[in-house]
TrEMBL record:
Gene3D superfamilies: 3.40.630.30. This is OLC1v1011475C1. The keyword Transferase applies. It comes from Oldenlandia corymbosa var. corymbosa. PROSITE patterns: GNAT (PS51186). It holds the Pfam family Acetyltransf_1. Keywords: Acyltransferase, Transferase. Residues 12-194 form the N-acetyltransferase domain. One of its GO terms (molecular function) is acyltransferase activity, transferring groups other than amino-acyl groups. The lineage of its organism: Eukaryota, Viridiplantae, Streptophyta, Embryophyta, Tracheophyta. It comes from the Eukaryota. Belongs to the acetyltransferase family.
Length: 417
């Protein structure tokens, strides 16, 4: 975009983010851009001085900025007016049955079909420079990088009432509405939650967790092929398995392979990701009355913890969160076991000084009923949009993933939350 007058020339240049020179300007711009639905309350994200923190743990990532360069009166003035982040990984986009062989004539277990997928995160344009094509320019430049690095699809997530973002991606950039997962958020109370004696919760080592996930969830949509990198990351606080009391104990744990060969009638699993060390959140724009009510609930909860009263955490000042991912399970008691795991995760977040725990699951997820959450904090229908970047694909047996119907479950990568 170029604006020309007799004395001044203004050009918007898209280039790669330079942490040595751009950090402070990007942080300042991030603070001026409202995140979340419009209205009196807005959600501010404090990236703790690291603008690429939310993509840094991905296999391949890039951050671009849009810089307004103004030439006039023999001087050059520069201003960062937009930014976009992107990352690339290989995920499951479908499944297929393997061909029968002489040794295995009856094949029933599905195999994952994988594709190289790109993700767009954190598109921001300065409020004073919107509707000038800067967002479109940033998206197109990022998609060039995606294609150069072999990405076959690109997707993004936004609130379902963020009409400006939806219009940009679906009307101008060629994306289509794809999945509508549920973002479920639960506050961390001032008291610990009681855990059922009928449930045993075990912490798995990364090797056992990887084996369980690959055996049971590798055909789940969006399952990352590098799940081992996630489970070994320092931000991963552990993978936890819930079983009926008396079936398996920490002392009798046989290892994941033996467990899966002789698994109990019901079990559930989830992993916990520490977002608190990556970024903090803050709800801004609240009235004094709202803040007073929230503070009162915490005071009463701390004074009378045996009442188990639900209290509102300090969401009007910076707070951290733990993200629950890799939720799954089997058997008639799976929902109850998921609920027990979520209560365990709540207590883990309380010990870690977090304000909320959050997770994201498919809209048709059968275990969703076991995930406690507050509707006012949650988004029952988030929106993911997707775009096919080319014509030659490794997922030929699936066809065009953008046109495939949703499954029951999705695997949400914690590195992109």
């Amino acid at each position: 975009m170029v604006a020309v007058s007799e004395e001044v020339v203004a050009v918007v240049v898209v280039r790669e983010f330079d942490p040595k020179t751009d950090c402070s300007a990007v942080v300042e711009l991030e603070g001026r851009c409202e995140v979340g639905p419009s209205g009196k309350l807005s959600l501010y994200t404090d990236l703790l001085g690291d603008p690429i923190c939310r993509i840094r743990n991905s296999p391949a990532y890039l951050m671009l900025i849009a810089e307004l360069v103004i030439l006039g009166d023999g001087k050059v003035r520069r201003e960062i007016v937009g930014m976009i982040r992107g990352c690339i990984k290989t995920v499951t986009c479908g499944k297929k049955l393997p061909r029968p062989t002489v040794n295995h004539p009856n094949v029933s277990d599905s195999l994952p079909v994988c594709t190289k997928l790109a993700y767009i995160l954190g598109l921001r344009v300065s409020p004073s420079h919107r509707r000038k094509g800067i967002g479109m320019k940033l998206v197109c430049k990022m998609e060039e990088w995606f294609r150069e690095n072999g990405a076959e699809y690109s997707y993004m997530a936004t609130e379902n009432d963020n009409q400006a973002s939806i219009d940009l991606f679906t009307h101008k950039c060629g994306y289509s509405k794809f999945r509508t997962p549920s973002l479920l958020v639960h506050p961390v109370f001032a008291h610990r939650l009681r855990l059922s004696r009928r449930v045993t919760i075990l912490k798995l080592n990364p090797a056992d967790a990887e084996l369980l996930y690959r055996r049971k969830f590798s055909t789940t949509e969006f399952f990352p092929r590098d799940i081992d990198s996630i489970l070994h990351n320092k931000l991963n606080l552990g993978t936890f398995l819930a079983v009926p009391a008396g079936s398996v104990t920490a002392e009798s744990w046989p290892g994941a392979a033996e467990f899966l060969a002789n698994q109990p009638d019901s079990w559930a699993v989830l992993s916990v990701w520490n977002c608190k060390d990556v970024f903090n959140l803050e709800v801004r724009g609240a009235s004094t009355w709202r803040k007073g009510i929230a503070k009162t609930t915490r005071v009463v909860d701390r004074a009378l913890p045996w009442l188990q009263l639900p209290s509102i955490p300090k969401v009007f000042s910076p707070f951290g969160l733990h993200f629950l991912y890799g939720l799954g399970g089997e058997g008639q008691l799976a929902v109850k076991l998921v609920k027990a795991l979520c209560r365990f995760a709540h207590n883990l977040a309380k010990d870690g000084g977090c304000g909320v725990v959050a997770t994201e699951v498919g809209s048709r997820e059968p275990l969703k009923m076991g995930i406690p959450h507050w509707k006012r904090l949650s988004c029952e229908e988030d929106l993911w949009c997707i775009k096919r970047l080319g014509e030659e694909y490794s997922d030929g047996s699936v066809g065009d993933w953008t046109k495939s119907p949703p499954g029951l479950s999705i695997f949400v990568d914690p590195r992109e939350f």
